[in-house]
Amino acid sequence: MARTQGSRADITGPLIRDHARRLFARQGYAAVSMRQIASAVGVQAGALYAYTPDKQALLFDLMESHMRDLLAAWQDEPAADPLQRLENFVRFHIGFSLDHSDAVFLSYMELRNLTPDNHARIADLRGRYETALENILRDGIESGMMFVDDPKLATMALIAMLTGVTNWYREGGRLDRQRIGDIYWGLARGAVGAA
Amino acid sequence: MARTQGSRADITGPLIRDHARRLFARQGYAAVSMRQIASAVGVQAGALYAYTPDKQALLFDLMESHMRDLLAAWQDEPAADPLQRLENFVRFHIGFSLDHSDAVFLSYMELRNLTPDNHARIADLRGRYETALENILRDGIESGMMFVDDPKLATMALIAMLTGVTNWYREGGRLDRQRIGDIYWGLARGAVGAA
DNA sequence: GTCTATAGCGTGATAGAC
DNA sequence: GTCTATCACGCTATAGAC
Question: What pLDDT, on a 0 to 100 scale, did the predictor assign at position B103?
Fold first, then answer.
């Protein structure tokens, strides 16, 4: 089958996702036009519709694949020491959030721009991730290594604290990632009463 | 001076601000039209421009007045015990955030939709508030009551943790505000090494 | 202060050529 | 798969009547 003029299907798809993610994160879904995305990619707006049925599906795909990537990347070791598992989680969450800061930002800022059905699916994935942390806290409490009044609230509090790194982190700043992980692990360990 | 037909200047201004705040917080600044705000208030879109020069100024006014209200509401007692001051801050921040959740959400979600000049002014106000907490932590460290590696990061971490309450809190939920304050104070106290 | 009407422009999405 | 052209609509903001 002969290639049609100017076709670059193998790279255009990923480029659309990359630029859309970046633009949505920086300006907000509603503020970004399909023309703007197309311009960043280097195609005309009409060409985008060969890859996505509409703008909403593009947003949902970005958020869903991010949540699936996050869940797939987190590898718990349920048999290990709960404190060690918590330290792993803290360092993992910070590292993943900084490596995918646009997707992280998108996935908790643009929930409101999803259709109700799409919203429910993302919320479900998010809930699974929160449960992963909550289970660590419950195991830590049960084993007497952690002291937390309310594991559910502690889960939300810790995730909010850790994700907050993306709000101020700048590449090449005062602290490197290892050091940031150390500091946040110290805060988290204290918060769960295991200082 | 005779009143013109249908004029309700005394209440329209606040109503515009109230509805704009609510709509911006729920749907995002870019996704809300001036017509939508006007409709919620009960006037035609053109009438809004008697109260604001444009949409951007309306957003900025909402954010700036929120930050000023926040700074005015926080009353530190520099002479008191640093731990007591931290507890006060924790309970204050959660209470204020829940009482003004739309404004809180707006003020950290829509920074990207401000002009650079307006952005700098909001960032300055936010910085002052962060400094208020940072000073408590520094005093706590100096007095040997707190153990924190990096007061700057601990400040960002604590504020992110506390503000996160607005993400999941629902009126009439499992926990009342007092109890939520107790739990978060426990987490914060532990995080700063004062459990 | 509020209304109606509208200018001027940008939007998401589609049709049809290549 | 990409382009050009376009439809139909919504947007911010303004003008002028009352």
Answer: 98
